[in-house]
Amino acid sequence: MKRLRIWLSGLSLVQQFISVGFFVILFFVLFSFTLLSRNVDNFVNRQMFVYLKSSQNEYFMYSDTYPDTVDNNVSHYIYDRATGSFVSNVPEDVFAALNTLELQEISDTTYGIAGKGKTMKIYALRPYKEGSLLLVSVISDAYRRSFEATLSEGVINVTLLVVLFLFSFMIIWVLTLLRPLNQIKHYVDKIRSGEKNPELNIQRADEIGEVAEALVDMQAELQEQKQIRDEMIQNISHDLKTPIATIKSYSESIKDGVYPYGTLEKSVDVIIEHADRLEKKVYSLITFNKLGYLDDTAPEGNTLPMVQVIHKAIVACKVLRSDIEIETDLQNVRFHGEEDPWRIVVENLLDNALRYAKSVVRIKLRSGRLEVFNDGEQLDQAYLQRIFTPYEKGNKGNFGLGLSIVKRVCETYGYGVTGGNTNDGVVFRIISLKKEKN
Predict the structure, then answer these.
(1) Mean pLDDT of all residues in 227-255
(2) From CA 108, how far away is CA 389, in angstroms rounded?
(3) At residue 31, does pLDDT exceed 50?
């Protein structure tokens, strides 16, 4: 069976269908003819009995004498049970077959088969008139064989026509499958060769149509990811270009004894500021890449005290904008996960809030829920739809890895994150996707 499976797997779909179809049809034909032979014999015998009965009825109605034969298909003989012999002449093969019967004991109409092989005869016995006479009727072998051959030929022809029709229908059906499959293959080849905007139009509601639709969606997603990647490279290049150029130009000026910012100390401070910016951007890229392989290895249940994580994040981020007030409303609840990833989440949300806030940032912590609000300008609805997309450029020109990192960590630990506008600002919410147990 394994070899057959391996052999079939090396064939094309059409070849597989023809091979399997051939074996199925062969099995069907052999099985059918095995049953057909037996059933045809039984059916023919029943029809011969019916024919004998009809012939005997005609004999009783229209024959006043004792003819040996009424027609060419049935032979009638008169047997005298009193003398134990036939009144009329009986052929040897018929006599040999009927000699095995107890004709003297027949008292009612009897049908049966006598003899075997070439001497087999289909007979009907019936008391004739009054007295000891018995009408013995025997069907002609030639008629029986002709009837059986005609019936078998008809059944075989019908069977072959049905099989041919089904096979033709299956071939047409397979061809209807091959066409969309070939279209899908050519579509994949076009994608592999880098052709721009390849088209695949398969109007089917079955699994092939679903596969085609999934491929089209996948291609659209790949194109979108390619566009995002290209934009990411442009954004990263642009964001890294400025601090690198500043650091290089200021360093060269200081080397030449020129202080671009008036004094050596102020010029070095500018270099340090841009180096910090560069370090932060590189750190974000490294963190984003690292969290792409983040697995949930934290202990089961909610074991991480989020109040401590939030306080550490506030201490780290407060220096970014000391003019912004950070208000907290924290309950002593625990989240599922490890401290470092969750601290990165809170720091990124705080960094984002402080960047856009006008005067206040509010942090609210409840069971299975964390909210970070800022009173900055509301976000455009189109931007809200893709705000967690990697490398999405924000309102102030930053390439938005922070919120992508937030989403990755939340999804890893079984939380969802959303962003939206309020009447007086913008709020980001982290909500547990399962029942919390503190």
Answers:
(1) 76
(2) 97
(3) yes
C-alpha to C-alpha distance for 330 and 367, rounded to whole angstroms: 10
Q: Tokens 């390849």, residue?
A: 198
Query: Alpha carbon of 376 to those of 254, 324, 350, 432: distances in Å?
Result: 39, 11, 13, 26
Instruction: Please state which CATH number belongs to domain 207-290.
Output: 1.10.287.130
User: Beta 325-330 vs 360-366: how paired, if at all?
Assistant: parallel
Which backbone phi and psi does 300 adopt, to 5 degrees?
-65, 150
The pLDDT tens digits of the residues spanning 12-25 come to: 666 766 777 777 77
CA dihedral for 381, 386, 387, 391, sign (positive or negative): negative
Among residues 334, 426, 342, 438, the alpha carbon closest in space to that of 387 is found at 426
User: Residue 162 — left, alpha, or beta (φ > 0 → left; ψ -120 to 50 → alpha)?
Assistant: alpha
pLDDT at position 23 is 76
Looking at the DSSP bridge assignments, the partners of residue 330 are: 365
What does pTM read for this prediction? 0.46
Average pLDDT, the chain: 80
Region 351-380 average pLDDT: 92
- Fold of the CATH domain 296-432: Heat Shock Protein 90 (3.30.565)
Order the strands of the 369-374 sheet from edge to edge: 325-330, 360-366, 369-374, 425-432, 415-422
Reference 110, options 88, 134, 80, 143; nearest CA is 134
Q: Check residue 242 and give its pLDDT.
A: 67
Question: How large is the average pLDDT for residues 350-371?
Answer: 92
pLDDT at 427 over 50: yes
Q: How far apart are CA 380 and CA 256, in angstroms?
A: 47
Mean pLDDT computed over 202-209: 80
Domain with CATH 3.30.565.10 in the chain: 296-432
- pLDDT score recorded for residue 397: 47
Express each pLDDT in 183-203 by its tens digit.
Answer: 888 888 888 887 778 888 887
Torsion of CA 333, 339, 341, 342, to 10 degrees: 20
- Which residues, at least 6 apart from 306, have a Cβ–Cβ distance to it below 8 Å? 330, 333, 334, 335, 342, 365, 370
